[in-house]
Design a protein that fits this description.
The structure holds two protein chains of two kinds.
Chain A: H1 8-16, H2 20-42, H3 50-63, H4 75-94, H5 96-101, H6 111-123, H7 131-148, H8 151-162, H9 167-174, H10 178-195, H11 197-200, H12 203-209
Helix pairs in contact in A: 1-2, 2-3, 2-4, 2-8, 3-4, 4-9, 6-7, 8-10, 9-10
Chain B: H1 12-27, H2 38-57, H3 61-70, H4 78-98, H5 105-121, H6 127-154, H7 165-168, H8 181-190, H9 198-207, H10 210-222, H11 229-238, E1 244-250, E2 253-259, H12 261-276, E3 280-281, E4 293-296, E5 302-306, E6 309-313, E7 321-324, H13 327-341
Antiparallel strand pairs in B: 1-2, 1-4, 3-7, 4-5, 5-6, 6-7
Helix pairs in contact in B: 3-4, 4-5, 4-6, 5-11, 8-13, 9-10, 9-11, 10-12, 12-13
Classes of the chains: A mainly alpha, B alpha+beta.
């Protein structure tokens, strides 16, 4: 079997068996996504620590190779869970996770004000007539919007929409009920839709608003 | 500030186009194509390599052998170093005895027959006796070894099988470096070494090129108790050929040892090959205390073997280059070192 065709689980087991090349392949496969995830979970305020947390995540993966056993969740989910925990450690130390994480599943607690502010801010951004400029601005706005989400909702959104993790995988990785995962996702999406409203409507309509 | 809650009046179908645009915006985030710094990437890969090599070295044949040797000497992390030191002291004594010449051939043969078996089976005489015996032999032979080392250093590529000045004139040029030395050594470690008849080794030593002599001696030297190795050494002594000399750093002490010609050739060839096939610069600093052995080449170059890593520099002031070693490469190099020191 071609090395590129090997599953993440196979590569991890091969790495545990002493094949360094397997790890390099695994690393190349997930380097970008894992780094983005870490950076986005940490948010803009802690972006400078993304490299460190990213490295810690991989060192934990390396350290766990001996005891790694493929489970129902994919290797990717397992790795992103490690990254998630590493991020939470940093967020807790900074105090940011506690302030934003309060009322994670409480839809209307406080976050509405933040959302309204974001919506107002978002309305000030006029999408460009050119696609590239429009989507660049949308991406920038989404970064701000994500940054304002509670950490738990941000993690749920990123795992599901960016990494394609299933609800069950996420529930297992985050050690919460599947319903709680759905709830976090629903709240996250609702807030993001509101925050990103100027960029999510039809281009002609958005332009008219602007 | 308005307080508009998220609009829940829309159906799921209404959200689909918006969610599609949200996904598109996700791909256009400023950090969508960001990657970790090169230093982070290098460090992660280095740690992975160290973890891999570390786990392998714990189960490598050499490590098991050293552990077996060390178990009779004491405990702790000094055991492998002490075992290697014991091995080298024994090899030094054996080599020095062989250099006494044909007049003491019977005695040398007897020692050569006994020492390898002891070293291989961990049944050597007590450490104190060995250490006490070594100074009796080393001082008389050390000048010769140092002199030979200088003569080797004077030659550019004539690293091994270096004859004395008298014999060097008639000797053929030094053999080229073997490109497949590592592969040969790796194959040799996994195969049962043939024990050559005495006549066979002697005939080859007398008639064939130094390369063939080296190969024949190497094959004989693989077996710790091979009786053919001692007569081959005696043949060289009778022909007036001085052994090759390299320096081995053992436990922080530099020792100048006369090495057996053929394994030394293969050792240097393998070391050069290993560094030529992908050495990397600046992969990180290695603790000098972790040095397993050091080989100093004739042109001032040096190799340091660490667990899973080989370092090389062209001269005393040149920067070190590092090259990770696979399990097979590390085992092959360690085998060659053992062969170069002696049976």
């Amino acid at each position: 079997m071609d090395a590129q065709d090997r599953t993440d689980d196979d590569l991890m087991l091969a790495f545990a068996a002493g094949q360094g090349a397997a790890f390099e392949l695994l690393y190349r496969r997930h380097e970008g996504a894992l780094f983005r995830f870490v950076r986005r979970v940490l948010g803009q305020a802690l972006a400078a620590q993304a490299d460190e947390v990213f490295q810690q995540t991989w060192l934990k993966i390396i350290g766990a190779k001996a005891g790694y056993q493929p489970g129902p969740a994919s290797w990717k989910t397992w790795a992103f869970t490690i990254a998630h925990h590493s991020c939470l450690d940093v967020l807790r130390k900074s105090g940011r996770e506690l302030s934003l994480g309060a009322g994670v599943d409480d839809e209307d607690s406080g976050a509405a004000d933040t959302l309204d502010w974001l919506q107002a801010e978002g309305g000030q951004h006029s999408p460009s007539s050119e696609d590239t400029a429009h989507w660049r601005a949308a991406g920038q706005q989404l970064m701000h919007c994500l940054d304002q989400l509670p950490t738990a909702q941000r993690v749920a959104f990123l795992l599901h929409h960016e990494e394609g993790c299933s609800l069950l995988d996420m529930a297992q990785a985050l050690q919460i009920a599947a319903e709680a995962v759905k709830s976090r996702l629903r709240y996250a999406m609702a807030k993001l839709r509101g925050c990103m409203a100027p960029y999510l409507v039809d281009r002609g309509l958005a332009g008219g608003k602007a | 500030m308005s307080t508009r809650p998220p609009d829940r009046s829309r159906s799921a179908d209404d959200d689909l186009p918006r969610d599609a645009r949200l996904s598109q915006a996700l791909q256009h985030m400023p950090d969508a194509h960001m990657a970790p710094s090169a230093q982070v990437r290098a460090e992660v890969l280095r740690q992975a390599r160290l973890a891999t090599e570390g786990s392998l070295s714990r189960s490598s044949p050499l490590r098991r052998w050293l552990r077996a040797q060390g178990s009779q000497l004491g405990s702790g992390h000094w055991r492998p170093a002490a075992a290697l030191g014991l091995f080298l002291v024994g090899a030094l004594s054996w080599t020095a005895l062989n250099h006494r010449g044909a007049g003491e051939g019977a005695e040398a043969t007897q020692v050569a027959d006994a020492t390898p078996a002891r070293a291989a089976h961990g049944q050597a005489q007590p450490l104190e006796e060995r250490v006490a015996a070594a100074p009796r032999d080393v001082p008389t032979e050390a000048p010769k070894a140092e002199q030979a080392a200088k003569s080797v250093a004077a030659g550019a590529n004539a690293v091994v099988s270096q004859p004395t000045a008298q014999a060097a004139v008639a000797a053929p040029p030094a053999p080229p470096v073997h490109d497949t030395a590592l592969a040969k050594a790796a194959a040799a470690t996994s195969a049962t070494p043939p024990v050559l008849p005495e006549a066979s080794v002697a005939d080859r030593a007398a008639t064939e090129t130094p390369v063939a002599l080296a190969a024949a001696t190497a094959r004989g030297g693989l077996a710790p108790t091979a009786p053919a190795a001692a007569p081959a050494t005696l043949m060289r002594a009778e022909q007036g050929l001085a052994p090759a000399v390299l320096q081995l750093k053992v436990n922080g002490q530099m020792r100048t040892l006369p090495l057996r010609a053929a394994p030394a050739a293969d050792l240097l060839a393998a070391l050069r090959q290993a560094m030529d096939t992908g050495a990397n610069a600046g992969l990180g600093q290695v603790q000098t205390s972790a040095v397993l052995w050091t080989v100093a080449g004739p042109a001032g170059e040096a190799w340091e073997a660490h667990a899973g890593l080989l370092r090389y520099r062209q001269g005393p002031t040149a920067p070190w280059r590092e090259h990770p070693l696979t399990r097979a490469q590390a085992a092959a190099l360690n085998t060659l070192v053992q062969q170069a020191v002696g049976p």
